[in-house]
Amino acid sequence: MLYDxxxxxxxxxxxxxxxxxxxxxxxERPRLVFSAVPVAWDRWVEVWDEAIAGRPARPIISVxxxxxxxx
Length: 71
Fold this sequence. Notes:
It is built from 1 helix and 4 strands.
């Protein structure tokens, strides 16, 4: 299976011959393409100011890549 990263806004898995036919989820593009995740200007400024002040880096955004663990 593969995901065409050019699809928008949802990316559905596509079957590739010779590979497992395991069922994969359809995902929103920002879950796979980080450049598609919007970052607010005030968040950029906050991170920049922290870096200049020498404080430890924190993530600019929070992105969930892997699915939630089944309960």
